[in-house]
Design goal:
The chain has two helices and two strands. By secondary structure, the protein is an alpha+beta fold.
């Protein structure tokens, strides 16, 4: 069994909260730089194969801005934020 197979609802809630805090900080910084209000939605959290990520953000041909985070340790993984 892979490490990511062991994720439960509590783990996903924690990942969602971490994403929400990070996105909130980024939105605050961007609003400060632009001098305008920024709206954001609560991030989603889930586990899926890399090949399926494009289906979440649009078509393969669509340009997308994305930030990639590499996680090391007992549960090595990648986190993508678009």
């Amino acid at each position: 069994m892979e490490t990511w197979d062991k994720l439960n609802a509590l783990h996903l809630d924690a990942l969602r909260e971490i994403g929400n805090i990070g996105a909130g900080n980024a939105a605050t910084a961007l609003a400060s730089m632009l001098g305008s209000r920024i709206q954001m939605t609560v991030p989603r959290a889930g586990v899926l194969p890399l090949q399926e990520i494009t289906a979440l953000v649009g078509y393969e041909e669509d340009p997308v801005a994305c930030v990639e985070f590499t996680v090391s340790g007992p549960a090595p993984s990648k986190i993508f934020s678009s």
